[in-house]
Amino acid sequence: MTNGKLRWPKRALISVLLFSAVACVGWYYRKTLPDGAANYQTMVISRGELLQVVTASGQLDPVVKVEVGSQISGNIQKLNVDFNSPVKQGQVIAQLDPASYEANFIQAEGNLANARAALELAQLNAERSKVLQVGKLNPKAEYEKALADLHQAEANVKINEGTLKKARVDLDRCTINSPIDGMVISRNVSVGQTVAASLSAPTLFVIGNDLNKMQIEANVAEADIGMVEVGQDVDFTVDAFSGQTFHGKVTQVRNAPKADQNVVTYETIIGVSNSNLKLKPGMTANVSLIVARRDNVLKVPNAALRFRPPKSVQGVKAGTNRTDIAEASVPSENKSERPRKSGGAKPKKDKRKSERTVYVLRDGAPQPVKLKLGITDGRETELIEGLKEGDTVVSDMNEPKENTTMVSRLFTGLKK
User: Fold this and answer.
1) pLDDT of residue 380 exceeding 50
2) 67-206 architecture in CATH?
3) Looking at the predicted structure, is the pLDDT value of residue 60 above 80?
4) Is the Cβ–Cβ distance between 83 and 281 less than 8 Å?
């Protein structure tokens, strides 16, 4: 019983000490952490180069790319080139089996010789009939038939000459030559493969004219095409060489529109130098067309242009308690900058788009400043007038929030 009586005072003493410690900690946090303090993030007005670009994507291709096909059918008898083989104009690059076409050519030659022999006979008959007709030794009908046979023989010779010429062309087409100087980009056939050209000419090779000079066919959206002009500089990247930027120039802006899923684009041709042959045909290029460039200009971050403080904290110093914010008002010299109420007159819509408002910290409170702006690269905008280099602008803030920590709740409960 004695031990039991001693335990209760000890427990009561420990409870009192714990209660006092929790109360002290709660009181400390309530006093040192202001409830709802506003914390502003600022950025500095800097100076440097600014580029306004139009982005697009396209595919790298040789300036001249020719698909070499076959107009006749047959088996591939010989291939003289392979992938990446350099070729010259007129060089034999493939040979089809010419056996059947040689037979057709010989047959056409025989038919032509036969037709010419028939023509000679018709000429002799016509001359003989003419002599007899002068002496009135044969009927006129016989003479007329001899002339008709002569004309028919002449026509038959022309027909066989055409047949022979076609057979010669088909025989020549068994030999496939390169139409341009360049390099074989693609080979689509192998030796022994049958080429069927009855319906359409199959593509046997793809030859690029000169891979030292290439072009990008970029599709530019209709909203940006008005800023694109011939001669503008272009920067682009490819996935094969990450971190490396290549350069080119706009050589042509085509007027033919392309519509894909209600998106209208215009093809823009960009000339590219590829002297080291690093760029390959078919690579996807991410293009940035430089439509405007400014050197050594003031730049304001776009995050500051988007920032708008809540009405409840405009003109209130950073670190002010939430209870004080409700009672605070904008200083008298800044009342003209306060937003209009919903019932007031609407602002004019004819203001220039280059005028924007940012907020700067003055005496710990965000104050509006109007700026005149120029071009933008999407992250920063050219600052023409309104602030100077080194000034800070507000880009973000932590909105005031009530302190709802466990200690604060406990302290409130203890007070009650």
Assistant:
1) yes
2) Beta Barrel (2.40)
3) yes
4) no
